[in-house]
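Obj.: predict assembly geometry.
Materials: sequence records (below).
Method: joint structure prediction, all chains together.
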Amino acid sequence: MKSHHIQTVALIATLTGMCLSPVRADDSTHAMPDMGKLLATGGVSSVEGAAGGGITPWALISGYGTRDSYGANVHYTELGTQDFQLDTYGAALGIMDRVELSIARQDFKSDRGPLNGLKIRQDIVALKLKLAGDAVYDQNSWMPQIAIGAEHKKNDGLTGLLNGPITALGAKNTSGTDYYVSATKIFLDQSILANITIRDTEANQMGLLGFGGDLHNSYRAEFEGSLAYLINKNWVLGTEYRAKPHNLSADREAAYYDAFLAWFPTKNYSVTLAYANLGSIAAPETGNNSKQSGAYLSLQAGF
Amino acid sequence: MNRLVQLVLASSMAVCTAIVSYSVMAQTAMTAEASDTVFDHFGGKAGISKVIDDFLVIWQGDPRISDRLADADVDRLGALLKEQVTQLTGGPANYSGKDMQTAHAQMGLHNADFNALAEDLQLSMEKNGIASRDQNRLLAKLAPMQKQIVTK
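Observations (raw structure tokens):
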């Protein structure tokens, strides 16, 4: 992890913290953020920007604004595997605990192995809408919080080792949109959080390798799941799984999974540490069929 | 190195699954064994009494919601809360106050007020050494009241 990135995040976090004024909303000042949601109930920032776990969106709306207010945050995430590094940074806005807007930029690069020097950048704009249920309050029923979302992704192409659009690696399109429905339930009686997301997607490796391919060139519904234990109000331990399509013969794409530990010291900050396994990436092109796995660190600052 | 990484990941996932399974099993066992209630985990009537007393002090010092207690009969409120929490945790009491909807109808409470109160209760439970699992069991009983209590 490069120190200037950490410094940048520390600076952003400090500035954000300084700008935050947790003023309670009342009848006369609805414009101020109320920071009224319970700790951790805005989730953390996924690598595609939406509130969730780390690799899958949840039905929770980002930030700490209740239905009377709003919340927002910025995040920075680093994930390093044997051959690759993925840096993600972005921002999310939660409005009235109902609508979530997020932006994220992914910088993916190979710093070892056959593709050493290859860089790919992708930008993601996403929208989430809570439709029904409440993950926290519906403790006397099985009703989960349900949300639908869309993540529009624009792959900015290859630089470094190769130059050109991502279609040079076999993808059919340079941009695409994922559509998903998520159901999140907090079982307070058991201190467990569970999430199921079904994503309709044509993205290769989240879109980092483009959209569609020679093996398959249309949308597929994929399952994503998270299971977490609420250790106490500040710590959450969990595991996630994300199935993915396999559209490219040049990329033996496989499911992602991770185990994470998230720390919420206050409503202004969270730190997520994880071990993520991204399966095979860009193999057999790289000749490296081994799993790409490694440490994941994500920092979020907001209100 | 890759083996080690996979081992760490696999172990973490196994530990997480084990904790979740243990939690579910413990919960199942809890249901079967009637004597071991959340009420007992709170230390019975004395424990709940302490939690509520501390909760009212924390509430009175919480600038977000302290004004809600300005005109309240705090002693009576405390007695009612002790009855209610005792009953909700499976202890021997019958809540004798008004139903939640009637009691809060004129208060015009926002969602943030409800959550601030929940946070103050968490602080009191933490102060009294109530295990997080047991705190959450009580919160699971209180959470559905949001629909009756929050009217704004």
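Conclusions so far: Chain B has eight helices and no strands.
To do: check interface contacts against the pulldown list.
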